[in-house]
Amino acid sequence: MASTTSSSASPVSASGSAQPLGRQLAASPAIDAAIKSIVAEVKAKSAQITDVRGPNPGLKESYDALMARAATVRGRALLYPYIGSGLGNGALVELADGSVKWDMISGIGVQFFGHSDPELIEAALRASISDTIKQGNLQANFEPHAFSEVLLAEAAKNSKLKYAYLSTSGCMANENALKVCFQKHYPARRILAFNDCFMGRSMMMASIGDSHEGRVGLPIVADVDYMPFYDEVQAEGIGQAKFIDRAVGQLAQYIARYPGQHACFIFELAQGEGGFNPGRRDFFKALMDVCKSQKIAVWDDEIQTFGRLPRMFAYEYYQLGEYVDVFCIGKMTQVCATLYTEEYNPKPGLLSGTFVGEGVSFEVGRRVIERLRDGDYYGENGRIERNHARFKEQVKALASRRPEWFPKVPEISDFAGGVGGMMRFTPFGGKKDKVQAACKAIFEAGVVLFYCGHGPYHLRVLPPLGVMKEEDWPRVFACIEAGLAKVAG
Hints:
39% helix
Protein backbone atom coordinates (compact mmCIF):
# COMPACT_ATOMS: atom_id res chain seq x y z
CA MET A 1 0.00 0.00 0.00
CA ALA A 2 1.33 3.43 -0.91
CA SER A 3 1.99 5.80 1.95
CA THR A 4 -0.52 8.61 2.40
CA THR A 5 2.08 10.97 3.83
CA SER A 6 2.37 14.13 1.72
CA SER A 7 5.14 16.69 1.56
CA SER A 8 2.45 19.31 2.15
CA ALA A 9 2.05 18.07 5.71
CA SER A 10 5.06 20.04 6.99
CA PRO A 11 7.32 22.86 5.81
CA VAL A 12 10.47 22.09 3.88
CA SER A 13 13.52 22.45 6.10
CA ALA A 14 16.35 24.81 5.22
CA SER A 15 18.66 23.57 2.49
CA GLY A 16 21.50 21.46 3.81
CA SER A 17 20.24 21.35 7.41
CA ALA A 18 19.36 18.17 9.25
CA GLN A 19 15.69 17.23 9.39
CA PRO A 20 13.98 17.90 12.75
CA LEU A 21 13.71 14.83 14.94
CA GLY A 22 9.94 14.85 14.44
CA ARG A 23 10.39 14.52 10.68
CA GLN A 24 12.92 11.76 11.22
CA LEU A 25 10.41 9.91 13.39
CA ALA A 26 7.69 10.22 10.76
CA ALA A 27 10.07 8.78 8.14
CA SER A 28 11.29 5.94 10.38
CA PRO A 29 11.29 2.53 8.60
CA ALA A 30 10.27 0.92 11.90
CA ILE A 31 7.22 3.21 12.17
CA ASP A 32 6.36 2.59 8.51
CA ALA A 33 6.55 -1.19 8.93
CA ALA A 34 4.45 -1.10 12.10
CA ILE A 35 1.74 0.99 10.45
CA LYS A 36 1.59 -1.27 7.40
CA SER A 37 1.32 -4.29 9.69
CA ILE A 38 -1.61 -2.74 11.57
CA VAL A 39 -3.39 -1.80 8.34
CA ALA A 40 -2.92 -5.32 6.99
CA GLU A 41 -4.44 -6.80 10.16
CA VAL A 42 -7.44 -4.46 9.90
CA LYS A 43 -7.95 -5.43 6.25
CA ALA A 44 -7.85 -9.12 7.12
CA LYS A 45 -10.54 -8.75 9.80
CA SER A 46 -12.62 -6.32 7.74
CA ALA A 47 -12.71 -8.72 4.77
CA GLN A 48 -14.66 -11.20 6.89
CA ILE A 49 -17.64 -8.82 6.93
CA THR A 50 -19.48 -9.53 3.69
CA ASP A 51 -23.22 -9.30 4.33
CA VAL A 52 -25.96 -8.38 6.77
CA ARG A 53 -26.30 -10.73 9.73
CA GLY A 54 -28.30 -10.83 12.92
CA PRO A 55 -26.93 -10.40 16.44
CA ASN A 56 -24.98 -13.13 18.19
CA PRO A 57 -27.32 -14.53 20.89
CA GLY A 58 -24.34 -15.08 23.16
CA LEU A 59 -23.64 -11.34 23.17
CA LYS A 60 -27.17 -10.19 24.01
CA GLU A 61 -26.61 -9.79 27.74
CA SER A 62 -23.37 -7.83 27.35
CA TYR A 63 -24.88 -5.67 24.58
CA ASP A 64 -27.96 -4.87 26.65
CA ALA A 65 -25.60 -3.86 29.45
CA LEU A 66 -23.73 -1.51 27.10
CA MET A 67 -27.01 0.04 25.99
CA ALA A 68 -28.08 0.55 29.61
CA ARG A 69 -24.75 2.21 30.45
CA ALA A 70 -25.10 4.52 27.44
CA ALA A 71 -28.63 5.50 28.48
CA THR A 72 -27.47 6.16 32.04
CA VAL A 73 -24.81 8.67 31.07
CA ARG A 74 -26.95 10.32 28.36
CA GLY A 75 -30.09 10.60 30.46
CA ARG A 76 -32.18 8.82 27.82
CA ALA A 77 -32.00 5.80 25.56
CA LEU A 78 -30.19 5.92 22.23
CA LEU A 79 -32.28 6.59 19.11
CA TYR A 80 -31.35 3.12 17.83
CA PRO A 81 -29.70 0.23 19.67
CA TYR A 82 -26.50 1.13 17.83
CA ILE A 83 -23.09 0.70 19.42
CA GLY A 84 -20.37 -0.12 16.90
CA SER A 85 -17.76 -2.80 17.41
CA GLY A 86 -15.06 -0.65 15.80
CA LEU A 87 -14.92 -2.58 12.53
CA GLY A 88 -16.71 -2.62 9.21
CA ASN A 89 -16.16 -3.22 5.53
CA GLY A 90 -17.10 -0.36 3.25
CA ALA A 91 -20.84 0.21 3.46
CA LEU A 92 -21.25 -2.60 6.02
CA VAL A 93 -20.78 -1.94 9.72
CA GLU A 94 -20.50 -4.42 12.60
CA LEU A 95 -22.17 -3.64 15.92
CA ALA A 96 -20.97 -4.74 19.32
CA ASP A 97 -23.63 -7.47 19.45
CA GLY A 98 -22.04 -9.12 16.40
CA SER A 99 -24.75 -8.00 13.98
CA VAL A 100 -23.88 -6.41 10.63
CA LYS A 101 -25.93 -3.71 8.89
CA TRP A 102 -25.81 -1.60 5.76
CA ASP A 103 -24.80 1.90 6.87
CA MET A 104 -26.93 4.14 4.68
CA ILE A 105 -26.57 7.23 6.86
CA SER A 106 -22.77 7.38 7.22
CA GLY A 107 -22.84 9.13 10.60
CA ILE A 108 -24.86 11.91 8.88
CA GLY A 109 -22.05 12.07 6.38
CA VAL A 110 -18.73 11.76 8.22
CA GLN A 111 -18.17 8.21 6.93
CA PHE A 112 -18.37 8.92 3.20
CA PHE A 113 -15.59 6.37 2.67
CA GLY A 114 -17.33 3.81 4.82
CA HIS A 115 -15.93 1.73 7.65
CA SER A 116 -12.36 0.54 8.13
CA ASP A 117 -11.08 2.20 4.97
CA PRO A 118 -7.41 1.12 4.77
CA GLU A 119 -6.05 4.35 3.31
CA LEU A 120 -7.75 6.56 5.89
CA ILE A 121 -6.70 4.24 8.71
CA GLU A 122 -3.10 4.56 7.50
CA ALA A 123 -3.39 8.36 7.41
CA ALA A 124 -4.80 8.35 10.95
CA LEU A 125 -2.04 6.10 12.25
CA ARG A 126 0.68 8.28 10.75
CA ALA A 127 -0.87 11.37 12.32
CA SER A 128 -1.29 9.65 15.68
CA ILE A 129 2.46 9.58 16.43
CA SER A 130 2.51 13.37 16.65
CA ASP A 131 3.46 14.90 20.00
CA THR A 132 -0.08 16.07 20.72
CA ILE A 133 -3.58 14.88 19.99
CA LYS A 134 -5.31 18.27 19.98
CA GLN A 135 -3.90 21.07 17.86
CA GLY A 136 -4.24 24.52 19.38
CA ASN A 137 -5.32 27.67 17.62
CA LEU A 138 -2.21 29.51 18.82
CA GLN A 139 0.11 26.52 19.17
CA ALA A 140 -0.08 23.94 16.40
CA ASN A 141 1.99 21.78 14.11
CA PHE A 142 1.59 22.22 10.35
CA GLU A 143 -1.26 19.71 9.87
CA PRO A 144 -4.14 22.21 10.18
CA HIS A 145 -2.47 24.55 7.71
CA ALA A 146 -1.87 21.70 5.24
CA PHE A 147 -5.56 20.77 5.47
CA SER A 148 -6.55 24.40 4.83
CA GLU A 149 -4.22 24.63 1.82
CA VAL A 150 -5.83 21.63 0.12
CA LEU A 151 -9.36 22.82 0.93
CA LEU A 152 -8.76 26.38 -0.26
CA ALA A 153 -7.07 25.19 -3.47
CA GLU A 154 -10.30 23.40 -4.41
CA ALA A 155 -12.68 26.07 -3.11
CA ALA A 156 -10.91 28.88 -4.98
CA LYS A 157 -11.26 27.22 -8.38
CA ASN A 158 -14.78 28.58 -8.83
CA SER A 159 -15.17 31.23 -6.12
CA LYS A 160 -13.39 34.17 -4.50
CA LEU A 161 -12.92 32.31 -1.20
CA LYS A 162 -9.37 32.93 0.02
CA TYR A 163 -8.98 32.22 3.76
CA ALA A 164 -10.05 29.50 6.19
CA TYR A 165 -10.57 29.37 9.94
CA LEU A 166 -10.92 25.86 11.39
CA SER A 167 -13.19 24.75 14.21
CA THR A 168 -14.24 21.60 16.03
CA SER A 169 -17.91 21.49 14.98
CA GLY A 170 -20.19 22.57 12.18
CA CYS A 171 -22.18 24.61 14.64
CA MET A 172 -19.06 26.56 15.64
CA ALA A 173 -18.17 27.05 11.98
CA ASN A 174 -21.60 28.64 11.54
CA GLU A 175 -21.13 30.78 14.64
CA ASN A 176 -17.84 32.05 13.21
CA ALA A 177 -19.48 32.76 9.86
CA LEU A 178 -22.17 34.82 11.55
CA LYS A 179 -19.55 36.78 13.50
CA VAL A 180 -17.71 37.56 10.27
CA CYS A 181 -20.92 38.82 8.67
CA PHE A 182 -21.96 40.88 11.70
CA GLN A 183 -18.55 42.51 12.02
CA LYS A 184 -18.41 43.40 8.34
CA HIS A 185 -21.89 44.93 8.32
CA TYR A 186 -22.04 46.40 11.84
CA PRO A 187 -24.42 47.60 13.21
CA ALA A 188 -26.75 45.44 11.08
CA ARG A 189 -28.06 42.56 13.20
CA ARG A 190 -30.87 40.94 11.24
CA ILE A 191 -30.49 37.62 9.43
CA LEU A 192 -32.26 36.25 6.37
CA ALA A 193 -32.77 32.48 6.17
CA PHE A 194 -34.99 29.96 4.42
CA ASN A 195 -38.01 28.22 5.84
CA ASP A 196 -37.10 24.76 7.20
CA CYS A 197 -33.40 25.61 7.51
CA PHE A 198 -31.16 23.90 10.07
CA MET A 199 -28.06 25.63 11.45
CA GLY A 200 -26.93 23.72 14.55
CA ARG A 201 -27.63 23.35 18.24
CA SER A 202 -26.05 26.37 19.93
CA MET A 203 -28.32 29.04 21.37
CA MET A 204 -27.84 31.32 18.36
CA MET A 205 -28.03 28.58 15.73
CA ALA A 206 -31.13 27.06 17.33
CA SER A 207 -32.72 30.51 17.17
CA ILE A 208 -31.98 30.73 13.44
CA GLY A 209 -32.95 27.15 12.56
CA ASP A 210 -36.59 26.83 11.57
CA SER A 211 -37.54 24.01 13.92
CA HIS A 212 -39.56 24.47 17.08
CA GLU A 213 -38.39 21.12 18.47
CA GLY A 214 -34.79 22.34 18.43
CA ARG A 215 -35.47 25.32 20.69
CA VAL A 216 -38.18 24.28 23.13
CA GLY A 217 -37.70 26.30 26.31
CA LEU A 218 -34.97 28.51 24.83
CA PRO A 219 -35.09 32.28 24.43
CA ILE A 220 -34.92 33.52 20.85
CA VAL A 221 -31.66 35.47 20.51
CA ALA A 222 -31.61 36.09 16.75
CA ASP A 223 -33.65 38.47 14.60
CA VAL A 224 -34.49 36.28 11.61
CA ASP A 225 -36.65 36.92 8.57
CA TYR A 226 -37.62 33.69 6.83
CA MET A 227 -37.87 33.30 3.08
CA PRO A 228 -39.59 30.52 1.13
CA PHE A 229 -37.20 27.85 -0.16
CA TYR A 230 -37.54 26.69 -3.73
CA ASP A 231 -40.63 24.51 -4.11
CA GLU A 232 -40.79 22.51 -7.32
CA VAL A 233 -44.49 21.73 -7.05
CA GLN A 234 -45.51 25.33 -6.42
CA ALA A 235 -43.14 26.65 -9.07
CA GLU A 236 -44.53 24.31 -11.70
CA GLY A 237 -48.06 25.22 -10.66
CA ILE A 238 -47.74 28.98 -11.07
CA GLY A 239 -44.71 29.11 -13.37
CA GLN A 240 -41.02 29.39 -12.54
CA ALA A 241 -40.77 33.11 -13.30
CA LYS A 242 -43.76 33.99 -11.12
CA PHE A 243 -42.49 31.85 -8.23
CA ILE A 244 -39.11 33.57 -8.36
CA ASP A 245 -40.67 37.02 -8.66
CA ARG A 246 -42.74 36.34 -5.54
CA ALA A 247 -39.65 35.37 -3.59
CA VAL A 248 -37.74 38.43 -4.76
CA GLY A 249 -40.75 40.55 -3.82
CA GLN A 250 -40.81 39.13 -0.31
CA LEU A 251 -37.07 39.77 0.07
CA ALA A 252 -37.60 43.36 -1.08
CA GLN A 253 -40.34 43.79 1.55
CA TYR A 254 -38.02 42.67 4.34
CA ILE A 255 -35.28 45.02 3.16
CA ALA A 256 -37.73 47.93 2.94
CA ARG A 257 -39.13 47.13 6.39
CA TYR A 258 -35.65 46.99 7.97
CA PRO A 259 -33.44 49.18 5.76
CA GLY A 260 -29.73 48.59 6.29
CA GLN A 261 -30.34 46.09 9.11
CA HIS A 262 -29.64 42.76 7.37
CA ALA A 263 -26.09 41.48 7.79
CA CYS A 264 -26.43 38.26 5.81
CA PHE A 265 -28.61 35.79 3.97
CA ILE A 266 -27.91 32.14 4.84
CA PHE A 267 -28.20 29.82 1.83
CA GLU A 268 -28.50 26.07 2.14
CA LEU A 269 -28.34 25.32 -1.58
CA ALA A 270 -29.75 21.86 -0.86
CA GLN A 271 -31.58 21.59 2.44
CA GLY A 272 -30.58 18.73 4.72
CA GLU A 273 -32.66 18.35 7.90
CA GLY A 274 -35.46 20.31 6.22
CA GLY A 275 -36.18 17.48 3.81
CA PHE A 276 -33.26 16.92 1.39
CA ASN A 277 -34.76 19.64 -0.78
CA PRO A 278 -32.74 20.65 -3.86
CA GLY A 279 -32.80 24.22 -5.08
CA ARG A 280 -32.57 25.83 -8.50
CA ARG A 281 -29.93 28.17 -9.90
CA ASP A 282 -32.16 30.95 -11.26
CA PHE A 283 -34.06 31.07 -7.94
CA PHE A 284 -30.87 31.45 -5.89
CA LYS A 285 -29.28 33.85 -8.38
CA ALA A 286 -32.24 36.22 -8.27
CA LEU A 287 -32.04 36.42 -4.47
CA MET A 288 -28.25 36.74 -4.46
CA ASP A 289 -28.41 39.57 -6.99
CA VAL A 290 -30.61 41.48 -4.54
CA CYS A 291 -28.20 40.73 -1.69
CA LYS A 292 -25.27 42.06 -3.68
CA SER A 293 -27.13 45.24 -4.62
CA GLN A 294 -28.05 45.83 -0.96
CA LYS A 295 -24.63 44.88 0.52
CA ILE A 296 -25.99 41.83 2.34
CA ALA A 297 -23.47 39.01 2.79
CA VAL A 298 -24.14 35.76 0.91
CA TRP A 299 -23.35 32.96 3.36
CA ASP A 300 -23.31 29.45 1.87
CA ASP A 301 -23.75 26.68 4.46
CA GLU A 302 -22.48 23.39 2.97
CA ILE A 303 -21.79 21.49 6.18
CA GLN A 304 -24.06 18.63 5.12
CA THR A 305 -24.03 19.05 1.34
CA PHE A 306 -20.27 19.29 0.69
CA GLY A 307 -18.96 16.52 -1.53
CA ARG A 308 -22.34 14.86 -2.04
CA LEU A 309 -23.70 16.77 -4.99
CA PRO A 310 -22.65 16.13 -8.61
CA ARG A 311 -19.89 18.72 -8.03
CA MET A 312 -17.64 18.91 -4.99
CA PHE A 313 -19.18 22.22 -3.85
CA ALA A 314 -22.87 23.01 -4.11
CA TYR A 315 -22.04 26.52 -5.34
CA GLU A 316 -20.18 24.86 -8.24
CA TYR A 317 -23.16 22.65 -9.01
CA TYR A 318 -25.45 25.69 -9.15
CA GLN A 319 -22.75 27.91 -10.73
CA LEU A 320 -22.98 30.52 -7.98
CA GLY A 321 -19.40 30.70 -6.69
CA GLU A 322 -18.93 34.33 -7.72
CA TYR A 323 -21.65 35.36 -5.24
CA VAL A 324 -20.35 33.55 -2.14
CA ASP A 325 -18.82 35.79 0.56
CA VAL A 326 -18.72 33.37 3.49
CA PHE A 327 -18.82 29.58 3.39
CA CYS A 328 -19.01 26.74 5.92
CA ILE A 329 -17.93 23.14 5.57
CA GLY A 330 -17.85 20.06 7.80
CA LYS A 331 -18.98 16.48 8.36
CA MET A 332 -17.36 14.61 5.44
CA THR A 333 -14.15 16.60 5.84
CA GLN A 334 -13.70 15.49 9.49
CA VAL A 335 -12.63 19.08 10.24
CA CYS A 336 -15.05 21.99 10.17
CA ALA A 337 -14.12 25.34 8.66
CA THR A 338 -15.35 28.83 7.87
CA LEU A 339 -14.04 30.25 4.60
CA TYR A 340 -14.31 33.84 3.43
CA THR A 341 -13.17 36.20 0.72
CA GLU A 342 -10.60 38.97 1.02
CA GLU A 343 -13.41 41.48 1.55
CA TYR A 344 -14.74 39.51 4.52
CA ASN A 345 -11.40 38.73 6.17
CA PRO A 346 -12.21 39.68 9.80
CA LYS A 347 -10.21 41.91 12.12
CA PRO A 348 -7.70 40.25 14.48
CA GLY A 349 -9.26 38.75 17.59
CA LEU A 350 -12.71 38.03 16.20
CA LEU A 351 -12.06 34.34 15.57
CA SER A 352 -10.16 32.38 18.17
CA GLY A 353 -10.41 29.39 20.48
CA THR A 354 -8.34 26.87 22.39
CA PHE A 355 -8.61 24.03 19.86
CA VAL A 356 -8.96 23.81 16.10
CA GLY A 357 -9.06 20.00 16.03
CA GLU A 358 -6.94 16.86 16.13
CA GLY A 359 -3.94 16.01 13.99
CA VAL A 360 -5.64 12.76 13.00
CA SER A 361 -8.72 14.66 11.78
CA PHE A 362 -6.59 17.05 9.72
CA GLU A 363 -4.66 14.28 8.00
CA VAL A 364 -7.73 12.14 7.34
CA GLY A 365 -9.70 15.21 6.21
CA ARG A 366 -6.93 16.22 3.83
CA ARG A 367 -6.92 12.75 2.29
CA VAL A 368 -10.72 12.87 1.94
CA ILE A 369 -10.54 16.10 -0.09
CA GLU A 370 -7.66 14.76 -2.19
CA ARG A 371 -9.56 11.55 -2.94
CA LEU A 372 -12.66 13.53 -3.91
CA ARG A 373 -10.48 15.72 -6.14
CA ASP A 374 -8.71 12.82 -7.82
CA GLY A 375 -11.56 10.29 -8.02
CA ASP A 376 -14.43 9.70 -10.44
CA TYR A 377 -17.17 11.11 -8.22
CA TYR A 378 -18.36 14.19 -10.09
CA GLY A 379 -19.92 15.10 -13.40
CA GLU A 380 -22.92 13.77 -15.31
CA ASN A 381 -21.57 10.21 -15.34
CA GLY A 382 -19.68 10.39 -12.05
CA ARG A 383 -20.10 7.90 -9.25
CA ILE A 384 -22.49 10.15 -7.33
CA GLU A 385 -24.91 10.56 -10.24
CA ARG A 386 -24.71 6.86 -11.11
CA ASN A 387 -25.56 5.84 -7.56
CA HIS A 388 -28.39 8.35 -7.39
CA ALA A 389 -29.85 6.74 -10.50
CA ARG A 390 -29.54 3.25 -8.97
CA PHE A 391 -31.25 4.50 -5.81
CA LYS A 392 -34.20 5.94 -7.75
CA GLU A 393 -34.51 2.74 -9.79
CA GLN A 394 -34.82 0.72 -6.59
CA VAL A 395 -37.42 3.06 -5.07
CA LYS A 396 -39.53 3.00 -8.21
CA ALA A 397 -39.28 -0.78 -8.49
CA LEU A 398 -40.38 -1.07 -4.87
CA ALA A 399 -43.29 1.30 -5.48
CA SER A 400 -44.40 -0.72 -8.50
CA ARG A 401 -44.48 -3.87 -6.34
CA ARG A 402 -46.08 -2.16 -3.34
CA PRO A 403 -48.08 0.82 -4.65
CA GLU A 404 -50.17 0.87 -1.49
CA TRP A 405 -47.07 1.93 0.46
CA PHE A 406 -46.61 5.01 -1.71
CA PRO A 407 -49.81 7.07 -1.86
CA LYS A 408 -49.50 10.41 -3.64
CA VAL A 409 -48.18 13.26 -1.50
CA PRO A 410 -49.36 16.63 -2.88
CA GLU A 411 -46.36 18.55 -1.56
CA ILE A 412 -43.79 16.59 -3.60
CA SER A 413 -43.48 15.80 -7.30
CA ASP A 414 -41.81 12.41 -6.87
CA PHE A 415 -41.65 9.98 -3.95
CA ALA A 416 -37.94 9.38 -4.85
CA GLY A 417 -36.04 12.65 -4.57
CA GLY A 418 -33.08 14.58 -3.26
CA VAL A 419 -29.94 15.46 -5.17
CA GLY A 420 -26.72 13.51 -5.69
CA GLY A 421 -25.69 11.63 -2.56
CA MET A 422 -28.49 13.27 -0.55
CA MET A 423 -31.31 10.82 -1.26
CA ARG A 424 -34.82 10.58 0.15
CA PHE A 425 -38.00 8.66 -0.48
CA THR A 426 -41.49 9.07 0.92
CA PRO A 427 -43.56 6.04 1.91
CA PHE A 428 -46.87 6.02 3.81
CA GLY A 429 -47.89 9.49 2.65
CA GLY A 430 -45.04 11.11 4.56
CA LYS A 431 -46.85 10.66 7.89
CA LYS A 432 -44.46 11.19 10.79
CA ASP A 433 -45.48 8.25 12.97
CA LYS A 434 -45.30 5.81 10.09
CA VAL A 435 -41.96 7.13 8.83
CA GLN A 436 -40.42 7.02 12.31
CA ALA A 437 -41.67 3.47 12.78
CA ALA A 438 -40.24 2.57 9.38
CA CYS A 439 -36.79 3.82 10.42
CA LYS A 440 -36.71 1.44 13.37
CA ALA A 441 -38.17 -1.51 11.47
CA ILE A 442 -35.64 -1.04 8.67
CA PHE A 443 -32.85 -0.88 11.24
CA GLU A 444 -33.96 -4.24 12.62
CA ALA A 445 -34.02 -5.59 9.06
CA GLY A 446 -30.40 -4.58 8.51
CA VAL A 447 -30.17 -0.98 7.21
CA VAL A 448 -29.29 2.18 9.13
CA LEU A 449 -31.11 5.28 7.87
CA PHE A 450 -32.93 8.25 9.41
CA TYR A 451 -35.78 10.57 8.48
CA CYS A 452 -35.92 14.24 7.51
CA GLY A 453 -38.44 16.95 6.70
CA HIS A 454 -41.05 18.86 8.65
CA GLY A 455 -44.12 17.45 6.93
CA PRO A 456 -44.23 15.52 4.78
CA TYR A 457 -41.56 13.37 6.40
CA HIS A 458 -39.13 11.32 4.33
CA LEU A 459 -36.74 8.44 4.82
CA ARG A 460 -33.30 9.91 4.17
CA VAL A 461 -30.29 8.08 2.82
CA LEU A 462 -26.72 9.37 3.00
CA PRO A 463 -24.82 6.37 1.63
CA PRO A 464 -21.03 6.08 1.82
CA LEU A 465 -20.59 6.73 -1.89
CA GLY A 466 -16.82 6.66 -1.57
CA VAL A 467 -17.11 2.87 -1.28
CA MET A 468 -20.70 2.07 -2.25
CA LYS A 469 -21.01 -0.46 -5.07
CA GLU A 470 -23.82 0.08 -7.56
CA GLU A 471 -24.59 -3.64 -7.58
CA ASP A 472 -25.28 -3.56 -3.81
CA TRP A 473 -28.42 -1.41 -4.07
CA PRO A 474 -30.76 -4.41 -4.57
CA ARG A 475 -29.33 -6.03 -1.43
CA VAL A 476 -29.92 -2.84 0.53
CA PHE A 477 -33.48 -2.48 -0.72
CA ALA A 478 -34.30 -6.10 0.07
CA CYS A 479 -33.73 -5.18 3.72
CA ILE A 480 -35.63 -1.90 3.35
CA GLU A 481 -38.60 -3.69 1.85
CA ALA A 482 -38.64 -6.21 4.71
CA GLY A 483 -38.70 -3.38 7.24
CA LEU A 484 -41.44 -1.45 5.46
CA ALA A 485 -43.56 -4.61 5.29
CA LYS A 486 -43.57 -4.84 9.08
CA VAL A 487 -44.85 -1.27 9.39
CA ALA A 488 -47.43 -1.64 6.63
CA GLY A 489 -48.92 -4.61 8.49
